[in-house]
Design goal:
- The structure holds two protein chains of two kinds.
- By secondary structure, chain A is of the alpha+beta class.
- Chain A has a domain of about 140 residues: Butyryl-CoA Dehydrogenase, subunit A, domain 3, CATH 1.20.140.
- Chain A is built from ten helices and nine strands.
- Chain A has a four-stranded mixed β-sheet with strand order 1-3-4-7, covered by helices on one side.
- Chain B folds into three domains: about 120 residues, Acyl-CoA dehydrogenase/oxidase, N-terminal domain (Butyryl-Coa Dehydrogenase, subunit A, domain 1); about 100 residues, Butyryl-CoA Dehydrogenase, subunit A, domain 2; about 120 residues, Butyryl-CoA Dehydrogenase, subunit A, domain 3 (Up-down Bundle), CATH 1.20.140.10.
- Chain B is about 50% helix and about 15% strand.
- Chain B is built from twelve helices and eight strands.
- In chain B, strands 1-4-5-8 form a four-stranded mixed β-sheet, with helices on one face.
- In chain B, helix 4 crosses helix 8 and helix 10 packs antiparallel against helix 12.
- The model of chain B has no long low-confidence stretch (mean pLDDT about 95).
- At the A-B interface, strand 8, helix 7, helix 8, helix 9 and helix 10 of A face helix 9, helix 10, helix 11 and helix 12 of B.
- The structure holds flavin-adenine dinucleotide (FAD).
- Flavin-adenine dinucleotide sits at the interface of chains B and A.
């Protein structure tokens, strides 16, 4: 076993940090719930960062590292599905890539818009189509940290892909866990900075053990989600992927409340970026039937 | 023990439900997504509270001599539950009738009562509460907004934050410092919001437009007669007010109603199918009902005239646990509720997520339970 990043991976993450540095200081005032950034999206796509998963030498682990790193930004770009699932489909499908589970098509869908590629996965297999304006209802008022839209109809005419649905589900779960790992880390960093800075009763909030222990547990969770996501990306095993996604969703549920709680009323303003991470985590919690769905998938894979 | 409602209580609840059904506009559920402090809901509340007042349902728990009917705390609870379940069409006025009015009744001068109680009783007043400051949230006693005595008036300077309703309120229940003594140096002033020197800025928030504000006081002149109670009596008065407010919002009732609604939608979509979703829903219901009973145990004691102490913190934290789990259930199993699909559930989410912060942070309630209920020794400072 060797759990260090390869030289290539270090170089990729350094390059991402360099590319995204100018974005870190973006004005968040009145950012709303989501902070999509078309320029950042273009920069990342042109830099090839979202195509890393196509390179067999770099593979899914490197793609997951990219997804995790990008999820820490206040801005959001559709990276997870593009980096981890597109390589499975081959070819040049237009981005963003939006994932939809058969039987759950009424759910709000991240990044869905006219021209996006919609990937439908379920018992009938794996298929894609390019969304038209008429099929999409934007949800600007949705309480999620991603641009969201509802799919109004699923066209009968779709491109069928000769890959098993299970392969897509494995990568969906890895993508979800990798993204959650970055979001958890960023939300935790932000909360840690706040409780160190904020004083009540003549001392920093950070000195209250009630908060320290819950934040320490959040660190354990964020760390666990990251490792499970990376391991699953390496093995592409259905059990590993389900465990990673289960731990991600459970950890998101367990920590989002605390992060907001520790900010006090500051945590309900749009002037602080916290919600940009927590309200993305909220959007991931319900994917693929939530923790129940991941739990059943994990049990089926681990103890068939 | 008897866990049933009396016929009179049931009739009272039915009457409220009928009134709500008759009065609320058809698109109410969508409309009520505006927070209770939003301009839209505040405007609507004026007409709604007028209707309640006409029907004798705005202040039925107030004493008869002040226009109420002297109904007991059970009726007050039923009223609060039905209104909160309906999305609180009284807007910010729920605060007036629940605790501002009762606090004025208990501590106000006759002039203050004559000036402020009738508009509350008619449904025409809107108050805001100026407690929190940028440096003083949980540690309220550290507040610094200063009221300097100058003859028969005070000169007020300082800043409040997170003030709900401030944008439209006519009067502020202002907590400020009249001397350096940490708790005994705090006094309450009843300040008209159009007094020169007051500036209000809205804070953009996750929970919707118009909900929270900063309020700046810059050399604001307030007559001494506007002081509620004695100089330095604020801590006692606030204690009385907050006990009323903490019990004032029966959040468990809306959480349960939202849970029931979510389950009925899931059933209609054939998605209340696996064990996971059913068990999670049951956990939620257990928490809402535990919170309900913890609250009812306090209402019962109030109805019997007993003093209430730290148990109200226990009931309050029980509702925080229930709100949290129900919000999480809906996010996980019915995520479209936070988009546009189910406005009632979105309304619940927006109100539920602040349960652990508004009116005092949940961790402070836990400290109170630990110290005053469990009698644990305090953490060394
Ligand atoms: C929707 C909304 C409406 C509001 N409306 C009003 C209003 O109308 N008027 C008004 O005056 N205020 C209002 N508030 C403010 C509210 O009263 C405060 O948010 C609350 O008292 C907490 O203070 P804070 O936000 O400064 O958090 P902080 O006091 O900074 O607390 C942050 C975190 O630290 C924790 N913490 C603090 N001290 C301790 C301790 N000793 N031990 C363990 N943990 C601790 C808290 O529990 C919390 O989790 C409103 C808040 C909200 C969210």
């Amino acid at each position: 076993m060797d759990l260090s990043l390869t030289d290539d991976q270090v170089a990729i993450l350094d390059a991402i940090d360099t590319l995204t540095r100018p974005y870190a200081g973006a004005s968040l005032h009145e950012a709303g719930f989501a902070l999509p950034d078309a320029q950042l999206d273009r920069d990342l796509a042109e830099g090839g960062f979202l195509d890393i998963g196509f390179d067999p030498d770099l593979g899914a682990v490197s793609a997951a590292l990219v997804v995790e790193r990008l999820a820490r930004l206040p801005q959001t770009v559709e990276a997870a599905a593009s980096a981890l699932i597109r390589p499975l489909l081959g070819g040049d499908l237009p981005r963003p890539l939006c994932l939809v589970e058969e039987g759950r098509t009424t759910r709000p869908i991240r990044f869905l818009r006219e021209g996006a590629t919609v990937l439908l996965v379920g018992s009938s297999g794996v298929s894609t189509f390019t969304a038209t304006a008429a099929q999409v209802r934007p949800e600007p008022e949705a309480l999620y940290g991603y641009p969201m839209a509802t799919l109004l109809t699923v066209p009968a005419e779709r491109t069928l892909h000769a890959i098993p649905a299970s392969e897509v589900l494995i990568r969906w779960r890895i993508a979800l866990a990798a993204e959650a790992a970055g979001l958890l880390a960023a939300a935790l960093d932000s909360t840690v900075a706040h409780v160190i800075d904020r004083q009540q009763f003549g001392r920093p909030l950070a000195t209250f053990q009630a908060l320290r222990h819950r934040l320490a547990q959040a660190q354990v969770r964020a760390n666990g989600v990251r490792w499970l996501a990376l391991k699953a990306a390496a093995t592409l095993d259905p059990g590993d992927a389900a465990l990673a996604a289960l731990h991600a969703q459970e950890s998101a549920r367990a920590t989002v409340y605390d992060f907001h709680q520790f900010f006090g009323a500051m945590g309900v303003t749009l002037e602080h970026p916290l919600h940009l991470w927590t309200y993305r985590l909220k959007a991931l919690i319900g994917d693929l039937r939530g923790r129940g769905g991941q739990g059943l998938a994990a049990a089926a894979a681990l103890w068939p | 023990m008897d866990f049933d409602w009396t016929d009179q209580e049931t009739a009272f609840r039915d009457r409220l439900r009928a009134l709500l059904a008759d009065t609320l506009p058809d698109d109410w559920e969508r409309f009520s997504q505006h927070g209770p402090a939003s301009p839209a809901l505040t405007r609507y509340a004026e007409s709604f509270c007028g209707t309640l007042a006409e029907q004798g349902l705005l202040i039925p728990h107030w004493p008869v001599e002040l226009g109420g009917q002297g109904l007991d705390p059970w009726h007050q609870t039923i009223l609060a539950e039905e209104m909160w379940i309906a999305g609180e069409p009284r807007g910010g006025q729920y605060m007036n009738v629940n605790w501002i009015g009762p606090t004025l009744i208990r501590y106000g001068s006759s002039d203050q009562q004559a000036r402020y109680l009738p508009p509350i009783a008619e449904g025409k007043a809107l108050w805001c509460q100026g407690f929190s400051e940028p440096g003083s949230g949980s540690d309220l006693a550290s507040l610094r907004t200063r009221a300097e005595r100058d003859g028969d008036q005070y000169r007020v300077t300082g800043q409040k934050i997170w003030t709900s309703y401030a944008g439209l309120a006519d009067t502020c229940f202002l907590v400020c410092r009249t001397s350096d003594d940490r708790k005994r140096g705090i006094s309450i002033l009843l300040v008209p919001m159009d007094t020169p020197g007051i500036t209000v800025r809205q804070i953009p928030s996750l929970i919707g437009e118009g909900d929270i504000h900063e309020v700046f006081f810059d050399d604001v002149i307030v007559p001494v007669t506007a002081r509620l109670g004695d100089e330095g009596q604020a801590w006692e008065i606030i204690g009385y007010s907050l006990t009323n407010e903490r019990l004032g919002i029966p959040r468990y009732a809306l959480a349960r109603a939202a849970l029931d609604r979510a389950v009925s939608i899931l059933k209609a979509q054939d998605e209340f199918d696996g064990e996971a979703v059913k068990i999670e829903a049951a956990h939620c219901a257990a928490l809402t009902e535990a919170a309900r009973m913890a609250s009812y145990a306090i209402v019962d004691r109030r109805a019997k005239g007993e003093a209430i102490g730290a148990e109200s913190s226990s009931a309050r934290f029980a509702t925080v646990m229930a709100e949290r789990r129900v919000c999480e259930f809906i996010v996980e199993y019915l995520p479209e509720a936070l988009a546009d699909a189910h406005p009632y559930l979105k309304m619940h989410h927006q109100r539920g997520i602040v349960a652990g912060i508004a009116a005092g942070a949940a961790e402070i309630q836990l400290n109170i339970i630990a110290t005053d209920v469990l009698k644990l020794p305090r953490e060394p400072r």
